[in-house]
Write a structure and sequence with these properties.
heterotrimer; A alpha/beta; B alpha/beta; C alpha/beta; A: alpha/beta; Pyruvate-ferredoxin Oxidoreductase, domain 3; 19% strand; globular; B: Rossmann fold; Rossmann fold; seven-stranded mixed β-sheet; six-stranded mixed β-sheet; 16 strands
Chain lengths: 191, 390, 332
Amino acid sequence: MIEVRIHGRGGQGNVVAAYLLATAAIDEGHFGQAFPAFGAERRGAPVVSFVRIAERALRRRNQVLQPDFLIVQDRALLKVPGVLDGLRPGGGILVNTSLDAATIGEQVGSAVVTLPATQLAKTHLGRPVPNTALLSAFLTLTQILPMDALTKALEQKFRGDILERNLRLIEAASQHVPAGHWKERAHATGA
Amino acid sequence: MRQALEGSQAIARAVALCRPQVIAAYPITPQTHIVENIAKLVADGKLVCEYVSVESEFSAASVVLGAAVAGSRTYTASASQGILLMSEVLFNIAGSRVPIVMTCANRAVGAPLSIWNDQQDSMAVRDAGWIQLYCADNQEAVDTTIQAYRIAERTELPVMVCVDGFTLTHTLEPIDVPSQQQVDAFLPPYHFARTLDPMKPISMGTLVSPDFYPEARHSHHQALLNAAAEIVAADADWCALTGRSQGSLVQVEGDADASVAILTLGSVIGTLADAREMHPELGTVKLIRLRAFRPFPSEALLQACAGVTDLVVLERALSPGGGGIVGAEVKAALFDMPNPPRVHNFAVGLGGRDIPLDIYPRLLQAVRSQSPRPFAVFDVELDKLPAEDR
Amino acid sequence: MNTTSQTTIPIADLRRSQPRFQGIESGHRACLGCGEALAARLVTEAAGPDVMIANATGCLEIFTTPWPESSWRLPWMHSLFENTGAIAAGMEAALKAQGKSTKVLAFGGDGGTFDIGFQALSGMLERGHNVLYVCYDNEAYMNTGIQRSSSTPHAAMTTTSPVGRDRMGKRHLKKDILSIIASHHIPFAASASVAYPSDIRKKVRRAMEIEGPTFLLIHSPCPLGWGHDGALSIEVARLAVQSGLFPLIELERGELIGTMPLRQPRPVTDYLRLQQRFSHLFKDDSRAREELEHLQALAERNIEYYGLNSNRDDPCDSEGADTVRRGGQRWG
């Protein structure tokens, strides 16, 4: 089982990201579960959502307290208490920032990969919504699912121009991170 | 077909498959996604029905009552304050013996205001005379919604399908959505024998004097007891059709001969089941889930408790000044056993507090280290309270 | 129709074999001179048999249906006090879904309409359900024993607006429900009185022809609650209209389109004197005189505002013949 916790802000598509990741997993024949940390948040407030991917039915309903991976949609959230809590030893953090991984890694003391997701989203979507770029990078890093699975999940969620733009965005995002960098780690958890 | 769906979306699909003719909708978190999803199905022409956006939950319940007696299958959903606002109508629907199905997206009741999951809302209306079925996961929510229509229409009793708010309604997971053919084979078109009809005029909801009132109440009680058989039959027939049983009246899993058992309602069973597998060193434990709370499944419960010496009753609500609601009812039922288990009654996860996996070892430790205490809120953090409130 | 024995006749056949259609049969348990019973009979007679009724809690519900008896010859349901508008809305939605043309009627008293059921009524009107809502207005909570409602007229005595050293009955004005209804811009709303039966019939028939929400407020004397002789119910109701205290008007989409003109408005004291609920106003007391003046002023304000004064040359002026002037000439 792989457990992922996604931190973001209201309006960044945090829940959508979690649902897309779990949908991609389910449609690939795995078991998946995604849920938000149930807030009454408005735009801009910190929000959290959770994803589990497994090879057998997921029954637990508790929040992901010890994630294998963290996806952080806003670098400023790294300073929010609790955001980095419980990351399993050897786990990875994917951060949306234009800074390099070494700089962020110094700050958080864990394996960090960075992606200028907001910048990429502005370029390809015309809107600063980083969620799909981060998902693309996450799949590229972990290779837990083929990129095609994310494409199909996006096709269920979006149509027309916005879909086309998202597909271009995930293609671009996947070029920004080292493919398979977290593969070993991801497959270890999946065992 | 197995699909990734959010719980609310899956419930909306299930409702649509039942071909409701009148839907009354009023928004309240965490139920709103259900009626939004249904509204979209109507807007897209995938569900043809009268979708009535009412001005309150009170009217939502009233609209479905009026529609059901006028001969249409209906649906509504609510939660929390909405359930309490419509509570007078809920009693009226049940007392009128009208088959209506609604979803309760279980949520805490304020004050203090909480939008998160517990089961205080449906527990508050447990005496309304509705059948209450509590779902463990979203697949069960789908299957139970469909079963509920058949149960309601065969018994002339309303059914409240209780689904943990957020914990289920906002969780995306794989759902096997039944086909329209399966649902049509299982659920005949709506039939209500006392449908109002100008050609056969009858009067409903009349004044009943003491000469007849106790008989009316007796027959309502008896109807609920009799409904147990319909709940069992609906689940069995559904299983024959789809291969999925959703727990009938009482679902038991784990070690059949265990002397320790944990009893719950709703979705927390899944967390406990995973935790049980992770902790074989803690000994054998049986997990008991009351799927039906009304009618109260005393007989099935006694069977499940055979050989149990310690029974933990976990609940997601409480009766202040009284204690556990489910616990009190379970204890009353166990009173008929020759050697009833000791009951350890706790509330847990009130107002959406996360119920972590380690609740399982902590509960077992509590059971093994002490004789039953009076009811307690298990995960209370007393240091957050002033001394006089601890 | 299956085997019909000589002793049991299907109720639908019985209804068809009546000399004329009646929605409510005799033998109910209303008080002598009950205005509401008469009004409901007139309404259902005019509405005809193809209707379905949602009835609020109240006298009408209680006196017509003591289980296992019922006076209704129509499909009828009582649910609760405050949800009649919503029950009717649900019935209408169901009939619409089934493609049936049966008209839904909603019946409520003033308590169930002006007060506790107002929200459900407003919702039903706003959503445009094809329902004729009839409020039988007897100006207090009579079913529970004469308590003040927001429809109770100013200065009237009830058990919760009693007369005493510091009080002269109800301190507040009767709620102008028709203006509020009119603000929903529904196709048709009107006031009527049991003193003018053919006017009631006409207004009901008009409402029945309209596809959409309509509202009828019927002034219905309560001999018990108002404290008058049951034999005088019609007289009392007529004086309420003739004094200007209960103007009979018609509204289309919120616009005034018809009134019943008054040939010779009667002083309000003619109306008030017949009723014990106003008896304190006829004591030799300066406050009583002041309240009488106040009530007279309210009547005159109605006459002025709705233009009820008759033009004797007006060919349409037919007060007493139950004809309402239409067309809005007076306000054109």
